[in-house]
Amino acid sequence: MGGGSNAIGLFHAFLRDADVKMVGIEAGGRGNGLGEHAARLGVLQGFTGARPGVLQGTYTYVLQDEDGQIALTHSISAGLDYPAIGPEHAWLADQNRASYAAVSDDEALAAASLLARTEGIIPALESAHALAGLVSRLSGLRKDDLIILNVSGRGDKDMDTYKRLL
Ligand SMILES: Cc1ncc(COP(=O)(O)O)c(C=O)c1O
């Protein structure tokens, strides 16, 4: 999730169905410290810097310094490199209706490689984060669980990064 538009587009049809679990994956970047990640809802995983605030007219969780100045963020994926999160996600997180977690740059790269090798699909780096989130949950899943993974985009735009780092 960058601002979270792809995720909310998928979640909204299932919000009233309590049997459906929803998980959003943010950019864990290269560390937990402010400026190293873009995990606005990742406080449980130890990602620092997110507090309620207003950015671009929206009251939501915002990565900010002690003075309330908007923090710098880092992600290998440009589309996830954003200090705020769509307010519906902030609300869903507070309600515990959806859960949120972050994966690192390296986990996203490994997931992109996995999807390319096993399915012949080169995902966008943003989508690779979602896949990495799924991979990290495999041990908690049963074979007959039904899963929808939002592959939000293609990796053509990320080929330079893939070529450099894989
Ligand atoms: C392919 C792709 N997926 C996901 C995103 C993240 O944005 P959002 O969380 O608003 O869906 C972006 C943003 O640029 C993107 O390019």
CATH class: Alpha Beta
The count of DSSP E runs of length 2 or more, i.e. the number of strands, is 4
How many helical stretches?
5
Low-confidence stretches: none
Main attributes of the structure:
alpha+beta; two-stranded antiparallel sheet; 4 strands; about 15% strand
Q: Can you lay out the helices and strands and say which pair or pack?
A:
Elements: H1 5-11, E1 23-29, E2 50-55, E3 58-63, H2 87-94, E4 99-104, H3 105-119, H4 125-135, H5 159-165
Parallel strand pairs: 1-4
Antiparallel strand pairs: 2-3
The structure holds pyridoxal-5'-phosphate.
Can you offer a commentary on this structure?
- This protein is an alpha+beta fold.
- It has a single domain, classed as Rossmann fold.
- 29% of the residues lie in helices and 15% in strands.
- The protein has five helices and four strands.
- The strands form two sheets. A two-stranded parallel ribbon has the order 1-4. A two-stranded antiparallel ribbon has the order 2-3.
- Helix 3 crosses helix 4.
- The model has no long low-confidence stretch (mean pLDDT 97).
- The protein binds pyridoxal-5'-phosphate.
